[in-house]
Structure formats: C-alpha cells, structure tokens
C-alpha cells in the first residue's frame, strides 16, 4: 500500500498534469474542429437552460475555490483568518456550491440518458465524462462531514501542503497519509479528470477562460467611409442620342 500511495500522490499528479497540458495543446493543433462542447440546445432547451446554468455556476465556484484554497500558502491568510475558520468557510460555501452544481449536473445527465433523441446525438465520451463529474461531486459532498469532524483545520492544512508541494516539484505523499479514505478517492478521481480532459468535450473550458482576454484588448476604432460619386463617362451612343 505504501508503494501505491507514493505512486498515486507523488507520481500520478505529474502524469495527469503532463497529459492535461500537452494533450490539450496537441488537440488544439491537430483537431480544432473537435474543439467544441457539442451543445444539444435545440432539444429540450428549457431543461438544458436550468441544468447548464446551475452546473456552470456551481462548478466555477468549486474550481476557483479549490484552486485558491489549496494553493494559497497559510502565511498569507493567517493574519486575517485562522485555518479552522477558513475550513468552516470552505465547508459551508463549498457545500452550497456543490449542491447547486449537483442539481444542475443531475439535470444534464438525466436528459442525456432518458431522452432518446439526445442520447442518439451524444458521444460516448460525453456521457462518460458527465458520469465521472457526477461521481466526483458526490465524493466531494461526502467529504464535508469528515471536514466538520476536523474542526481544527488540520485536514485542510495537510491537503494544502500536499498540493503546494506538487506545484513546487517537491512532492511529499506523507502529508496526506493520515487523511480519511474519502479524501484520497476524491483526490485521485479529481486528478483523473485532468488526465481525461484533452480527450473529452471539457476542452472547451480553455476557450471560456480565453474570452477573458477580450476584457483587456485595446478598443477598436471603426470609422465610417463616405462613398464618393463616380463621374459618369459618356459614350458614343449617348452623344449620338443627344
């Protein structure tokens, strides 16, 4: 088990990140026509509208919450909030966002599975990635009671130290060796989603983040051009007529 633990939390993260980055770049370079979300908006648009809005609102909050929560060093926020209180904020805020995301994703998954027309127009990878995201959300909600039981903030600190050590290329799987099993499954499945990212419809997330660049573009100056009247050219026929 120690060998498996070291592989999953010391080596596997770098495999997933490498495939995530290089695979996304390769797909953009070679298969740009597949770089899309394959929307089924024309079929059952009302359920899609509710499900998609709830899912995206929840998943964006969870993504940035996990990113800033795990990768922010403790010395930055400790003057303002203790690790224990930070963990409580993460549990309650993440719990609300998780429930919202879960409802939206369940609606999207329901229409993909139980609507014959949508099921026929869906790729297998579409359904597969939705199921994985649904399971990951369930696992994330399961970890909430475990986080409340560690009210001193130790679980959050261990997860943060592990994530930060991965990003500074000093992996230390021992940081999370004593965590509950639910946390470890949640981490492994989360890394697996990054591994599958370039081969699924999730690649359109890159395009969503890229649109932020439009906020910083210099304004385009558009001038109207007045069309001049071209002089008429007389012909021999017109002269004869005159």
Write a compact overview of the structure shown.
69% of the residues lie in helices and 0% in strands.
Architecture blueprint of SSEs:
Blueprint: H1 2-30, H2 45-71, H3 74-77, H4 83-114, H5 116-121, H6 124-149, H7 154-167, H8 181-196, H9 204-210, H10 236-241
EC number: 1.7.99.4
Enzyme class: oxidoreductase
Transmembrane segments: 12-29, 50-69, 89-108, 128-148, 187-216
Distance between the termini: 104 Å
How helix-rich are the residues, as a percent range?
A: 55-70%
CATH level 1 name: Mainly Alpha
Number of strands: 0
Unreliable spans: 233-242
Mean pLDDT score, rounded? 83
Radius of gyration: 26 Å
**Gross geometry:** globular
- Largest beta sheet, briefly? none
Beta content: under 5%
Structural class: mainly alpha
SSE string = HHHHHHHHHH
SS element count, helices: 10
CATH architecture: Up-down Bundle
* Structural domain count: 1
CATH topology: Fumarate Reductase Cytochrome B subunit
Description:
With 242 residues, this protein is mainly alpha-helical. It has one domain: Transmembrane di-heme cytochromes, Chain C (Fumarate Reductase Cytochrome B subunit). It is 69% helix and 0% strand. It contains 10 helices and no strands. Helix 2 runs antiparallel to helix 4, helix 4 runs antiparallel to helix 6 and helix 6 runs antiparallel to helix 8.
């Amino acid at each position: 088990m120690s060998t498996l633990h070291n592989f999953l939390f010391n080596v596997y993260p770098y495999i997933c990140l490498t495939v995530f980055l290089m695979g996304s770049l390769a797909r953009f370079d070679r298969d740009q026509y597949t770089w899309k979300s394959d929307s089924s908006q024309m079929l059952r648009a009302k359920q899609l509208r509710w499900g998609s809005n709830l899912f995206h609102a929840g998943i964006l909050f969870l993504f940035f919450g996990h990113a800033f929560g795990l990768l922010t060093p403790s010395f930055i926020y400790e003057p303002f909030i203790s690790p224990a209180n930070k963990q409580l904020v993460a549990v309650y805020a993440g719990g609300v966002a998780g429930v919202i995301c879960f409802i939206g994703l369940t609606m999207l998954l329901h229409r993909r599975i139980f609507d014959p027309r949508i099921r026929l127009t869906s790729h297998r990878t579409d359904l597969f990635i939705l199921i994985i995201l649904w399971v990951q959300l369930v696992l994330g909600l399961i970890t909430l009671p475990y986080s409340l039981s560690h009210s001193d903030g130790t679980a959050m600190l261990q997860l943060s130290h592990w994530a930060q050590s991965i990003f500074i290329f000093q992996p230390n799987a021992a940081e999370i060796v004593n965590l509950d099993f639910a946390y470890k499954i949640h981490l492994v499945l989360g890394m697996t989603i990054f591994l599958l990212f370039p081969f699924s419809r999730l690649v359109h997330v890159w395009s969503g983040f890229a649109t932020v660049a439009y906020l910083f573009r210099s304004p385009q100056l558009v001038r109207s051009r007045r069309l001049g009247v071209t002089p008429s050219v007389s012909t021999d026929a017109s002269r004869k007529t005159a």
